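Researcher: We plan to redesign the surface later, but first we want a full-length starting point. Tokens attached.
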């Protein structure tokens, strides 16, 4: 992939830019193999799940810089000034197509970009998610409620200029902190959830819901996990850290009981709506015992254990408490999806009774060193 922004030194986020994709993938596989060699010496590696080298990101987190009437959408430089990256080649084409209409809208409304060094202004970020159906979830991250009336008034014009915007929200982020968003979300459209169709299942994303950045690789993750569930002939499955229910929804099948656990009530609500949608479509998986609960995955585990547990934790891993429970439990199989090989290794060390037998690398983030791994663990 060639990038004018990188070549000009305006953006260096893609640390592997210029490295041939095959070399990137081989280096990531070697790093994963080396890291897991000590704790999983018998691990059999499946072929890595490859991604397009460009045009793969389904979500844009655009920092708004510049000045009122002349905003930039992209990142900030070392002095806190806006760098416009609307032509970045990482985004899916349908996502990139939203940037110019949104830029014009922000300009026409006179929304004042937030000046980080001066700590003044209103509009901090634009966060846009693109669905396989070509629809969008658009979030305006604002410092205060000051521009809410203007956004509400501009909504009809916004939907005319960007008819693909299914969900539009305003997030209120009053604090001067290096975080993306605030606690309060105001939904401006009638619809509050973005459907993400993957194969024959539909996930529903709320404004703050987590979804994998690369839709193609997300589908590969769910397919692989489901193959391992079928291989284990699991009749009971738990999906811990389930988010909007991706693994659970794909594992659901007649004769199988599946439980998803997630700390976000918003995500659990969306997962339950996805179950209702399955039933409305007459999907065979709707006959499964598929339920979702709000809870802390690290502390809600109890006996009796299911046949198989899926864990998809944040970068810190599952931690000592849950690893200890899995070690002592009667679960025969664990499918562990990890975005951090170091925490994965640490957690595997805490579960010596569970042997890592198969693994696969999923290249979620080409042009960077980040990787997604998934391993199948079987009780010794």
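Model: Full-length starting sequence:
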């Amino acid at each position: 992939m060639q990038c004018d922004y990188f070549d000009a030194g305006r953006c260096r986020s893609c640390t592997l830019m210029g490295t041939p994709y095959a070399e990137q993938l081989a280096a990531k596989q070697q790093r994963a193999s080396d890291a897991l060699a000590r704790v999983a010496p018998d691990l059999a590696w499946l072929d890595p799940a490859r991604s397009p080298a460009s045009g793969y990101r389904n979500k844009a987190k655009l920092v708004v810089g510049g000045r009122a009437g002349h905003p930039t959408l992209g990142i900030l430089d070392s002095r806190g000034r806006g760098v416009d990256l609307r032509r970045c080649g990482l985004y899916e084409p349908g996502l990139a197509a939203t940037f110019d209409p949104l830029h014009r809208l922000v300009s026409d409304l006179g929304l004042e970009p937030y000046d980080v060094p001066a700590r003044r202004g209103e509009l901090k970020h634009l966060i846009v998610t693109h669905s396989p159906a070509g629809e969008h979830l658009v979030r305006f991250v604002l410092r205060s409620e000051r521009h809410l009336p203007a956004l509400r008034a501009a909504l009809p014009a916004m939907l005319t200029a960007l008819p693909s915007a299914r969900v539009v929200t305003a997030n209120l982020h009053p604090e001067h902190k290096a975080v993306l968003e605030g606690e309060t979300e105001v939904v401006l459209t009638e619809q509050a959830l973005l459907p993400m169709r993957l194969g024959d299942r539909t996930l529903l994303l709320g404004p703050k819901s987590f979804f994998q950045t690369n839709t193609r690789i997300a589908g590969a993750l769910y397919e692989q996990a489901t193959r391992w569930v079928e291989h284990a002939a699991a009749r009971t499955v738990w999906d811990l850290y389930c988010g909007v229910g991706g693994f659970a929804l794909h594992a659901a099948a007649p004769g199988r009981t599946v439980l998803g656990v997630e700390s976000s009530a918003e995500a659990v609500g969306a997962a339950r709506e996805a179950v209702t949608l399955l039933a409305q479509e007459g999907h065979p998986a709707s006959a499964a015992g598929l339920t979702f609960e709000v809870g802390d995955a690290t502390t809600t585990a109890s006996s009796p254990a299911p046949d198989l547990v899926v864990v998809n934790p944040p970068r810190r891993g599952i931690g000592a408490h849950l690893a200890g429970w899995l070690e002592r439990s009667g679960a025969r199989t664990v499918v562990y999806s990890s975005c951090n090989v170091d925490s994965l290794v640490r957690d595997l060390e805490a579960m010596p009774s569970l042997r890592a037998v198969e693994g696969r690398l999923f290249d979620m983030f080409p042009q960077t060193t980040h990787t997604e791994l998934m391993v199948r663990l079987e009780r010794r």
